[in-house]
Amino acid sequence: MRQRLLALITLVILLAGPAWAEPESWVGRNIRVSAPVADVRKEPAPASVGRDYDPLEETQLLYGDTVQVAEEKGDWVRLFAAEQLEWNHHNRWEGYPGWTERSALALEPEEWNPNFVVTAKWAFVRANPEPAAPALLKLSIGTRLQALPRDPSRNDLGPIQGWWKIRLLDGSAGWIAQKEGLLLETLDDLRDDSAGYRKRIVETARIFLGDPYYWGGRSADDPESKGPPNTGVDCSGLVGLVYQANNSIIPRDAHEQWMNSRKIERDQLQPGDLVFLGDPNKPEQISHVMLYVGDGRVIEGAGTGGTVREIALEERLKENPQRRVAYGRYLP
User: Does position 189 have pLDDT exceeding 70, yes or no?
Assistant: First the structure.
């Protein structure tokens, strides 16, 4: 009887083996973010609840972002965020490095090519093209997705009766209201009108006014979120997300945003340009960035405990008169 029982247990273990087996290695594979927002951590440890300064918070990823996995450690993977370039960690241009929970990632499906970006602060992916349909996902502004053609036999991309059809990472389809996103090629076409495109950048930045500052944050604030991940933006996360929502990708951190920008003078500022402040103790190191909105005003993520605000540039510079000031441009 005992031998039969042991044999039965052995058989169950063998049949259920895959559930207990080590997960398939993702090193060198194409990986996408499958959570609406995912933290990238300095060490493999989760964030705490709340927006107090957390030195382990590096940056955040959005659904559909590409990552390159370098190492696996239990429920965590060490990765490089491919679309968030930075220099400071290893003195070379690379994707932002850090640790993310494996559960927030998924293997990239075949032929999943983002061609659409969420432009509303938050967009709901619904099961059917109806306002009351169940919500499958809630996605932050700046999230890039794959919009599907109206007719599968032709590549006629566009909304269908007020809705965009979206292909999700698991292969299923969802629907986003027409007003909540745009095709990337549409945003590229808008660049031809430089003044209009700059105005669009400013309007996008104003969506964030009043949102809480969160060190390492790179997602729209969701008051309903209990975290982690906590939602919100830091100064460079705000600027990067505003640009991304308009199909312009710039480096992740303030210093690298300054490094990669075209240098201009203050009297050349136009809406959408950037204003940088040096570190109080190391002037050559840029540690803060603000977005110029015209009429002598800027929008910034004002620091831990603060919010995203709009303020006169002259007034802002008086707050830290000892800091180095520089100006940069990415827009046409």
Answer: yes
Find the DSSP H helices in 127-209. Answer: 184-190, 194-206
Return d(Cα 231, Cα 221) in angstroms, integer: 5
Amino acid in position 259: M
Spatial contact of 157 and 149, defined as CB atoms under 8 Å apart: yes
What span, in angstroms and rounded, lies between the C-alpha atoms of 10 and 145?
45
Q: What is the helix (H) or strand (E) element at residue 181, kind and residue range?
A: strand 181-183
pLDDT number for residue 305? 87
Q: Rounded to whole angstroms, how far apart are CA atoms 30 and 23?
A: 15
Find out whether the peptide bond into 109 is cis, omega within 30 degrees of 0.
no
Nearest to 258 by CA among 332, 212, 169, 325: 325
Percent of the chain surpassing pLDDT 70: 93
User: What is the phi/psi pair of residue 223, to 5°?
Assistant: -60, -20
Helices (H), 49-147: none
User: All domains of the chain, ordered by start, with CATH?
Assistant: 22-107 (2.30.30.40), 116-183 (2.30.30.40), 187-329 (3.90.1720.10)
243 φ/ψ angles, rounded to the nearest 5 degrees: -65, -45
Angle at 197 between CA 325 and CA 302, to 5 degrees: 35
Distance of alpha carbon 277 from alpha carbon 274, whole angstroms: 10
The predicted pLDDT at position 3 comes to 53
The radius of gyration of the chain's CA atoms, rounded to the nearest angstrom, is 22
User: What burial class does residue 207 get, using C-beta atoms within 10 Å of its C-beta: 0-12 exposed, 13-18 middle, 19+ buried?
Assistant: middle
